[in-house]
Specification:
This protein has helices at residues 15-24, 37-47, 56-61, 76-85, 100-113, 127-137, 167-170, 174-177, 180-189, 313-325, 334-353; strands at 5-9, 28-33, 51-53, 66-69, 89-92, 117-119, 144-152, 194-202, 230-237, 242-248, 257-264, 268-275, 284-294, 297-302, 357-358. The chain is α/β, with parallel strands linked by helices. It has two domains: 5-121 and 315-332, Rossmann fold, CATH 3.40.50.720; 124-310 and 339-358, Dihydrodipicolinate Reductase, domain 2 (2-Layer Sandwich). The protein has a nine-stranded mixed β-sheet with strand order 14-13-12-11-7-10-9-8-15. The protein has a six-stranded parallel β-sheet with strand order 3-2-1-4-5-6, sandwiched between helices. Helix 1 (15-24) packs across helix 10 (313-325), helix 4 runs parallel beside helix 5 and helix 5 runs antiparallel to helix 11 (334-353). The radius of gyration is 20 Å and the shape is globular. The chain starts with a strand and ends with a strand.
Length: 360
């Protein structure tokens, strides 16, 4: 196969993982685009990327084989549809889009163009997640009846007034920003068809600088803060399975926790990352565990895997490249993304109406 080329749309911090992932997979990163051309030029200079554009459309017109979308959520759908229609394979950052309807447009474009559309659910690519999936596929957990998916912080608001806190640009707060663990729980459970959702969201501390995260994201004077800061939701599936999920930027939690715990008919399991300081990966520790009964006694096992401080971010890009080459199955599919965003839509509607919402 000829050498593949890639273009990256969006020069924010997440783009560095895409650049590194493409390099690890032997792909030439040919171009980067961002309306902030100075920022794009800085990233390009540091990474040796030869071409810089101010718009997504100009990059797409250069016809790279692969395109990564690393923009605010509002632009995911329109850029993905344009890139797929131009013949590129697309890796889009999470969340897939702001709504299920926008995600469906992306999935339809991928089907029409016969191109791969993948979403960067990087936690699926973590060594711990893939280790648990080996046990799940081997039937060692039995049927996974229930799961609990958490990404919770005490001090983790990503700046005030920027695109993260502006619903029009982001689609929501931590419900949509921290949906990784909800996705991972669904992945472990086989992505069952959801039947209904009951949820509550809260906006406590939404303008309190004490609850700002540590990443140095600048505040925008006069900007909008109109998203939730925490959510709790319960989802029941047509299979009879159930999942509880929490997501928070600002909530009175002990510390940041990123985890999925599940209970099967033969054994249970958990993947968990606990942080010493909210938002700082270098302070975090990872565990991967199995819970079972042997000879009438409770037994807990630790699964030892290589650590990945990057939480699968580079490995997910490598998987995307290999899926295009036909040597690996993609870690995520458009149908799964649509199903996930239908849950998110129902979660927000349930929180607004204070009633359960049925998903057709």
């Amino acid at each position: 196969m000829r050498n593949l080329t890639a273009g990256i749309i969006g020069a924010g911090g997440i783009s560095r993982y895409h650049i590194a992932g493409y390099r690890a997979a032997g792909v030439s990163v040919r171009a980067i685009a961002d309306p902030d051309t100075a920022r794009a030029a800085e990233v390009a200079a540091a990474a040796g990327i030869p071409e810089v554009y101010e718009s997504a459309s100009r990059l797409i017109a250069q016809k790279p084989d692969l395109i990564s979308i690393c923009t605010p959520n509002r632009f995911h759908s329109e850029i993905a549809v344009a890139a797929l229609s131009a013949g590129a394979h697309v890796l889009c950052e999470k969340p897939p889009a702001r709504t299920a309807a926008e995600t469906e447009l992306m999935a339809q474009a991928a089907a029409r163009s016969r191109r791969i559309l993948m979403f960067d659910f990087n936690n699926r690519a973590r060594p711990e997640a893939q280790a648990l999936m080996q046990y799940i596929r081997a039937g060692e957990f039995g049927v996974l009846n229930s799961a609990q998916a958490l990404w919770i912080r005490r001090c983790g608001i990503p700046g005030f007034g920027g695109w993260f806190t502006t619903r029009e640009l982001s689609g929501g707060g931590p419900v949509i920003d921290l949906l990784h663990m909800l996705d991972l729980g669904l992945y472990f459970m086989g992505y069952p068809q959801p039947s209904w959702v009951l949820a509550a969201t809260f906006s406590d501390f939404a303008n309190d600088p004490s609850f700002k995260g540590p990443w140095g994201i600048p505040d925008v004077a006069g900007g909008v803060v109109d998203v939730e800061t925490a959510s709790h939701a319960f989802i029941v599936f047509s299979t009879g399975q159930a999942l509880f999920t929490r997501a928070s930027w600002a909530e009175m939690n002990e510390r940041e926790e990123v985890s999925v715990t599940f209970q099967g008919t033969r054994a249970g399991g958990r993947i968990r990352r606990l942080f010493g300081t909210d938002g700082i990966d270098a302070t975090a520790s990872d565990t991967c565990e199995l819970f079972t009964m042997e000879h009438g006694r409770p037994v807990n096992r630790k699964v030892i895997v290589p650590s990945d401080e990057k939480m699968g971010r580079e490995r997910a890009v490598v998987n995307f490249v290999n899926a295009v080459r036909g040597t690996e199955e993609p870690l995520s599919t458009p149908d799964e993304a649509v199903r996930l965003m239908k849950i998110i839509d129902a979660l927000y509607l349930s929180a607004h109406t204070h009633e359960p919402v049925r998903i057709s």
